Amino acid sequence: MNALLICSGGFDSVTLAYRLAAEQSLGTLLTFDYGQRHRKEIDAARLAAERLAVPHLIMDIGHIGRQLSGSALTDDIAVPHGHYSEENMKVTVVPNRNAIMLTIAFGVAAARGHDTVALAVHGGDHFIYPDCRPDFIRLFSEMQTKALDGVAEVALLAPYVTTDKTEIARDAARYAVPVGDTWSCYEGGELHCGRCGTCVERIEAMALAGMADPTPYQDKQYWQEAVARVKSCTP
Hints:
metal-binding; 10% strand; nucleotide-binding; Rossmann fold; 40% helix
């Protein structure tokens, strides 16, 4: 396998990069600049590519991202605090983001001779993001098989799509991922905020996996409150 991995620079995609590199199947990292609130993830992806000694492509689709307005990830909208299982997290949806990125990635993979496009979506994303769900992954793969019929054979690899982030944390430990050099926080401050959905999920996953978290957070305790609030609302 010679995989083109969509890598944001976050905990999930960098972990998958290290896993594929250990399996000697990582070819290239592809990062999208779609006009997100900050560039810290992009810098983290660049660092991962350097350490893994693979090419790093940065695709500027800011002109597309500017049309996908209304998300806390692209507009001047307050990033909500709490767990991903809370309804208010839907304000972080960028419409069709994964569908757009995957479409481009398959074209790049076909043009550059990669046989696989890899993506680190996981089960914890299903409630909020429709283009992270198993049905989407399956149907998108079928669509790309048709789109590239007679041109190239490119598979879609999403190994975490039916598992939770705790499994990603276990892989991070297994493959010695430098977690402190990945960037997940939506706020983009000097430190991870510890309160946005992706920070809460990140801290929770490493705690459940029994993994030491070297990441400095502005608030390292809030995640327990957010998790407890969700559990109290679960029937």
